Task: structure prediction
Amino acid sequence: MSFASTQFLVFFAALFLLYYTIPQRHQWKLLLAGSLIFYWFAGWWCLIYIGVTTVTVCLTARKIDSLAQAQEAWFQAHRDTLSKEERKAQKARDKSLRFRWLLACLLLNFGILAVVKYTNFVLGNVNAVLALFGSGQLPAVSMVLPMGISFYTFQTTGYLIDVYWRKVPAQRSLGKFALFATFFPQLIQGPISRYGDLSRTLYGEHPWNAQQIAMGAERVLWGLAKKLIVADRLAIPLRTLVSSPEEYSGVYVLAVIFLYAVQLYADFTGGIDITIGAAQMLGVQVTENFVRPFFSKNAAEYWRRWHITMGTWFRDYLFYPMSVSKPILKLHQRCRNRFGRFGKHVSVHTCSLILWFVTGVWHGASWNFIVWGLLNGIVIIVSQEMEPLYDKFHARFPSLKGSWGWDLVQVLRTFWLMGAIRVLDVYRDVPLTFRQLGSVVTGFRPQVLWDGSFLELGIGAGDWLVAAAGGGAMLVCSLLGRRKPVRERLLDHSPHLAWGGCVLLVLLTLIFGVYGIGFDATQFIYNQF
Amino acid sequence: MEELLSILREIHPDVDFETCTTLIDDQILDSIDIVTLVAEIGDAFDVEVPPEALVPENFNSAKALWAMIQQLDEG
Amino acid sequence: MKKTIGTAVLWCGILCAALWLLNALFLPKYMSRVPEGALIAEYYKETAGHDVVFIGDCEVYENFSPDLLWREYGIPSYIRGSAQQLIWQSYYLMEETLKYETPKVVVFNVLSMKYGEPQSEAYNRLNLDGMRFSRQKLAAVRASITQEESFLSYLFPLLRFHDRWGELTGEDVTYLFHRDIVSDSGYLMNVQVRPAEDVPQGRPLANYEFDPVCWDYLDKMADLCQENGVQLVLIKAPSLYPYWYDQWEEQIEAYAAQRNLPYLNFLARTEEMGIDFSTDTYDSGLHLNLYGAEKLSRWFGDWLTQNCPVEDRRGQEPYESVWQEKSAAYAARKARLEAEWSGSNPAE
Result:
């Protein structure tokens, strides 16, 4: 069920009321039951997939944890009898035993993810190659993606690796672990929580806390408003613009870049607001996933502020382990002395490119995502390599650095650059995207911006105004909320202001939201990943 | 310790590593620096820095780094 | 703590009030356009009871003149008709009407037997939004909604009509809490003349059987009338199309005989009534105009007087004063519409 549906509202209201009436020690069990029901709605067969992942990860983590404890006990008992070298060797042996368990479980779970997500992509590419040689075709397999598989696979394997690294203790209770894997607010589109973060509040007893509940509810409302008023409204002209790219080239492509940035931001952060707000209403604290990403001054910063939990997952569980692995260290040694400054970075950049390739693949099984990922990686690498140049530039114009105007230039540059790369997942076709981007220069007809052409894209002037007002409100709230969220600031002023804001938000969403007959409720974009 | 400081200075000549304790928290060291550092440390002190050691607590100050190296060397 | 609860209650109150206001504001008013939408709700303004109640689709509210039935026969009547009223909507309207009064005769037009499933969202809204909140309304909604409609939007019409924010007009404010009367006892008057010319024959159908659901509801109607001691009269209005097939006629005739109900097919009696489709229809034979409707009503008034337990209530209060007012409004409306029509058609 989609967050923006009456079905979900009813489901959540019932769960919420029950949650605060049953004895507090049973609250987590109710959450688990609710999560399973939520998942059941996506199709009972999905429960098989998430069930396999939950059970295998939980048991493997327990096994690794027990092994580690036994090894540790043995080690403590025999510590004094061993030399330093023997100690190191023993530790390495112990670790490799644990690693085998880890590897088996990771292979299984990433294997499932790969099969359901990438089979057809691989088959399609194999067929393309076969066609070159004029031989027969493999049939496509019909496979429906279990809901949230990319998210729960990452969340549970992250936990498993943390247990292997001994950062967190293994969760002995299968039920509690299942709740971590299936916690419904974040099942559809993340954030990808860490066990160490989520477990702090997930299993505890939560007494009624009016302030927390009110803050959470307001955040849910805000998320719904962003999604229903801005995102779903802008989705309509975007669909038109993308459905006939030949017709809408040139300046329209700039519009696609801009509108998609706003639309995706409103949709994705709206969904995350609902997730975090709903969890907060249940007393559970979920990690933030966005920190005003469009104010970033460069690509690397942007990726520290956009879809944060995904970025840190890839950093901690892929980038770092890869970077300190033996082959990469060897590569580092070899290049360091040969190619000067750049040589020192060869190994890191290699890891970066692999990281971004995988990030692209994770987003979707198609070439546009792979190119999208690699482009992000390349932009980050180039900007890192250009740092000496920047330093020289700033040495010439010392007053620029840190000035308001220069910050703005950087922010705008990053916004448009990341936006231009992002349209790859709008057009979903690599050559087409580049043709479109090229047409900005070759077919530049700025008059369509004011000759009324934008009123024929599926929404009228009134709707554009509403979208603009909504986008503006998002911008203002985002700026006002830098130190403290706006809803908390309102409450500090006066409870009447906070309540008034809430009521206004409900009414505005009901009136200006895009829902019901005549509007196709668009699913949250990140559902597909 | 002196050897570690010289490695650090080579990466960022402009930082006072002897006193700074927020190398990660203030984003003085980015991921490239961290990975370069691990490679250099591995060479210089003959230790393997495992990925699980790549946490802010170990990289926030030269002192913390040094403690990590010694612990890894202890076995 | 007390203060917090007070604030919460206050603002929840404000929210409810605002929602109620918005619901009223966004609901289409059907005053200057699509007056059919205002028909169902008008019934609740009636002050005197009725001996005859018509239930059905446009073939009742465009074809019968309750005013003539009063003027010439002293029969107080009302038409609970609405556009493309489906048979389950008719049934629940009948059930609802019987909560308010027990007429002597209920007349049901059988054309809607041809629709076995919900047809269109727009007609659903026209037919259901006007009903007062009741068990019958909920049941009618449940039976009527199409795949893409939500039940909730019938309880809170704002959920359906919120996207009218761009087209709200002064009319929506003027008629926030009241409506003008658009009909004459449920009759939507039309005085225009557009002769029926080539009336197409019905195309052969693959299946002439009425849907079992429709039979169920017709049965329920007959049972309901029987329980309440009301005479149910089945009719087929004299509209040339939608085409009424002989096979359909046979089924209804058989049913009426079996349940011992009178069934009048006016299509076969137009000559007897003196209806002339070159002057008595306003849309080439789909519906009668005022002149046709009065001819039909006169014939039906005769028939009612002879065959049903109705009495001449002229001179009886409260009927007399209520209908005097109604007749005056009817005459005024007729004069105004005729002036408008001849004004727009100076050649005639």
About this structure: Chain C has a mean pLDDT of 91. Chains C and B do not touch (no CB pair under 8 Å). Chain C has one domain: 2-344. Residues 25 and 173 of chain C are 7 Å apart (CA to CA).
